[in-house]
Amino acid sequence: MKIGSVELICPRCRSALLSEGDELVCVECACRYPVVAGIPDMRLAPDPWIGLEDDRHKALRVLDEAAGLDFAGHVRTYWKLTPTTDSAQADRFTEHVLGAEARTREWLVASAGSAVDAPEDGVWLDLGCGTAEVSVVVAPGVAVVGVDVAMRWLVIARKRLEEAGVDALLVCANAESLPFRDRAFTHVVALGLIEHSPHLDSIAGETRRVLGPRGSVRARTVNRFSMLPEPHVGLWGVGFLPRSWADPYVRWRSSLNYEHHHPWSAGAIRRALRRAGFSRVRVEAGASLESDLERAGRLVRLLTPLYEWARRIPVLRHLVTSVAPLIDFAGVAQ
């Protein structure tokens, strides 16, 4: 099944799909994939935080209860429908989502040196697109397909796109099993994705598979061995524990769940990209963004000039990358 210039295929056997009512059906293995509120659901596995049916139901509830509201209203409605998140956390998460466009725009400029020129008529893949800020930031000059495992966030992403007047394809799918043909994209962007999956090699392999010749990946993630508190739970030292200890430790220190967080180290990311067949691999300490520093503590703001100096010094670069709070990485498909 083709939507625009992008062909959707069965993520299980990579065969063609036919449209039958509100479903897409594989011509080879007969797997059926529902289309929910106009968004194809191509997942082979659920978001670890919520089951498939519950996720679809929540997506439809958000649409129903946020009808007539703007993008910010959709985000706030989502958190009202999530009683397990307290109001202080919900406010913080809402602020993070509403500021995503500014962060993304700044990051794309800061990381431009890690990218290679892609053909002008190519299509970008925004992997783990969240609320589709990449599509909005690079429009109208770049065609983008946004993929995320959370259907409930994709319906909110569509509202952001509507308000920005951007036409982008949104697909609910697993980053480890993408429903696209080989070499379908010229560039892959991934912001805050890989720390939510234990399958780094699968994500790297699928990213490599869907990139055309000279296509590039550019991404940012939190560092497992950061010297700053873990950003999802605000605790020091979580990444230095054995993975099996991390969730019990976080539950002991707070009321939060860490079961489905899997931050990676710079070395693990570098090895995964090389195993997947990427060349010109770059893994480096992430540049400080003004949009992030606005919310940072006084100590972090004071130390930022020293951090920026150190990450540019060749003799210090590797050490700084190993303990930096954020990691930027890039690679080029052969």
Description of the molecule:
There is one protein chain. With 334 residues, the chain is an alpha/beta fold. Helices cover 38% and strands 21% of the residues. The protein is built from twelve helices and 13 strands. It has helices at 52-65, 71-80, 87-98, 100-110, 133-138, 151-164, 200-210, 243-253, 266-276, 290-293, 298-310, 314-323, and strands at 2-3, 6-7, 17-20, 23-26, 32-36, 39-40, 123-127, 143-148, 169-172, 185-191, 211-222, 278-285, 326-333. It has a seven-stranded mixed β-sheet, sandwiched between helices. Strands 3-4-5-6 form a four-stranded antiparallel β-sheet, covered by helices on one side. Helix 2 packs antiparallel against helix 6. The longest helix has 14 residues, at 52-65. The chain starts with a strand and ends with a strand. The model is unreliable at 114-119 (pLDDT under 50).
Q: Got a strand count?
A: 13
Quote the distance from N terminus to C terminus. Answer: 27 Å
Radius of gyration: 20 Å
Q: How does the overall form come out from the CA principal axes? A: globular
Mean pLDDT across the residues is 92
| Helix count from the secondary structure assignment | 12
Structural class: alpha/beta
Strand order of the largest sheet: 9-8-7-10-11-13-12
Query: Which regions have little confidence, pLDDT < 50, spanning 5+ residues?
Result: 114-119
Could you write a compact summary of the structure shown?
With 334 residues, the chain is an alpha/beta fold. It contains twelve helices and 13 strands.
